[in-house]
């Protein structure tokens, strides 16, 4: 980034190569899962980095500075979207990037959801959908902790919070994730019990679902 500050275009191209997918991944969660929209906002973030190059001061990690810009762009995009009147549009091929919501995947209240459908779901998709249902600030904290392995201090700098406030925010997010994912935990336990009855003692090598550190991809 110091080279970029000195107007080195090749250094900027290298930064783009290293970081654009990480920014895109965050924005897909922060502003919705429309891939084109997230790509457009990613370009906005990178252009802001280029325009602000002369004012860059080394100190914190470059990624912390970059994700602070990303958070600002995402917040602006959400505010702008909230001010627009809602328009219903038909789904088409361009919408295929958006996966099913957790409500669409969750078992019905009556417990009538077909077991086979649950079996075929990728756990990553379920966790991702649950993360996307978190409040904005909780979602960002979880994404930074899970995707970027950011420290409490780094997350606090990005979100303008104290490290202790970040810990509290993540604790609330994990509790919410446990609640959102509990139907799948119960479903899995029910199926394991049924398998035990029909197939004998359960295997000791069973998958473990933890909501402490969800890692959607």
Short description:
With 217 residues, this protein is mainly α. The chain is 65% helix and 0% strand. The protein has two domains: 2-81, Rna Polymerase Sigma Factor, Chain: A; 99-199, Orthogonal Bundle (Arc Repressor Mutant, subunit A), CATH 1.10.10.
Tell me which CATH architecture of the largest domain applies here: Orthogonal Bundle
- Which overall shape is indicated by the principal axes computed on the Cα atoms? globular
For the record, the CATH class of the largest domain is Mainly Alpha
Number of domains: 2
What's the total number of strands? Answer: 0
CATH superfamily of the largest domain: Winged helix-like DNA-binding domain superfamily/Winged helix DNA-binding domain
Order of helices and strands: HHHHHHHHHH
Oligomer: single chain
Strand content: under 5%
Could you tell me how far the N terminus lies from the C terminus, measured between alpha carbons in angstroms?
Answer: 27 Å
Whole-number mean pLDDT: 78
The name CATH uses for the topology of the largest domain is Arc Repressor Mutant, subunit A
Radius of gyration: 20 Å
Question: Helical percent range?
Answer: 55-70%
Which features would summarize this protein structure in a list?
single chain; 217 residues; mainly alpha; Rna Polymerase Sigma Factor, Chain: A; Arc Repressor Mutant, subunit A; 2 domains; 10 helices; 0% strand; globular
